[in-house]
Sequence to fold (232 residues):
Amino acid sequence: MFPGLSSRDVLRMEWRDVFFIHWPVDPAVVEPTLPDSLAVDTFDDRAWLGIVGFRMADIRPRFAPLGRSFRELNLRTYVRHDGDPGVYFYTLDADDRLGVAIARRLFALPYYRAAMTVRDRGGETRFRSERRHSGAPPATFDATIDPRGERESVEPGTLEAFLVERYRFFTERRGSIAVGEIDHEPWPLQDADVTIRDNTLFEASGFETAGEDPHVRYSPGIDVTAGWVRDA
Fold:
């Protein structure tokens, strides 16, 4: 670590054109899928499974002049470790071979290579992903997201804050729990409609497809800084 360098300012990146699609589930559905030292985090006594897609732009070390950009799609839930809230990722698909290799090695996250296409038309965005990672369960996702309404900042204590204002993730590394931390301004969010044509991300991670209508939000994006993964 460089002297005076914040532990959350080693890497810099932009997260752009972000959609959040979340389903409420019984906490008992999520609990058996977590490492022993992680506990399910709930809102109104419900656990949440989320699919989040976005464009990761200009990701680079703090002092590097240029970075990499690629699309990402992840399946995640929300947890606590010793009382600290965070995100637990089941899978992260990305359309960048080198980015996947680096993320798996440096951050101990379950990244997989995927072929992705994104088409914008009349304010709608169609996001399609097909996993193509050797040895990984196949998974596809195909949906159109249509933002609507006014853009607003997230209010503390709301469901939106619970789902998106997360500043750490937990992962397994060498048989123990590791944590990575990020920093950014509060998310600007707006309502959105979604039409899902195909989604096998749940099945690929051992879940049944959620039956309830999802909670959907869209954001134009934020700038993010992040630190290295360390033992929790």
Observations:
- Residues 11-231 form a domain with the Acetoacetate decarboxylase-like fold (CATH 2.40.400.10).
